[in-house]
Amino acid sequence: MYSQRPLPYAFEALEPYIDARTMEVHYTRHHAGYxxxxxxxxxxxxxxxxxxxxxxxxDLNLLPEELRQPVRDNAGGHLNHSMFWExxxxxxxxxxxxxxxxxxRRDFGSYANFQNLFTRTALDRFxxxxxxLVVGPAGRLEVISTANQDSPIALGSRPVLGIDLxxxxxxxxxxxxxxxxxxxxxxxxxxxxxxxxxGAAVESLVRVxx
Length: 210
Prior knowledge:
Structural class: mainly alpha
Shape: globular
Strand content: 5-15%
CATH architecture of the largest domain: 3-Layer(bab) Sandwich
Oligomer: single chain
Low-confidence stretches: none
CATH class of the largest domain: Alpha Beta
Strand order of the largest sheet: 2-1-3
Helix content: 40-55%
Distance between the termini: 34 Å
Number of domains: 2
Largest sheet: 3 strands, antiparallel
């Protein structure tokens, strides 16, 4: 059975950028809903419910054909949200440091270039989905977006930073003003966690190439 990790901060901790009511509804209803549906889908399917989510999403052929799309949606929703909560922090904002900062400058030319591209990609996503900073298969940082609850892992990329672009992530506070929500996101980005995830992604890629 899959389960939610506790939020690493209180619902109101990201105020004024992300409001407490949005966080509560987002975590206790939307994310919890994906987990409940995923567990229901996998009832009676033996060891499938114990497979690591990243492995499951990377190879949906492990599943019977009739389960692949609903598991893709709900496992993706669970995994994406589990990462998203950790990518936010009351002490967030600023700019990345260390090796992540160095690779951002190498692959995008500057932090400002990266930030502009990430923002533009988030705003250009039509409908529901996610914006991502990922380590691509070639080892370079890339900015991409995915539809619905699709994960970059299914594309062979490793997510470093993500922003939820579904309306449930921002509508209570920002209504249809996605641009304001994306601007607010930069004030709560947990760059320390992103740097940790980036380091693990690079190490994983190195191991695969050996």
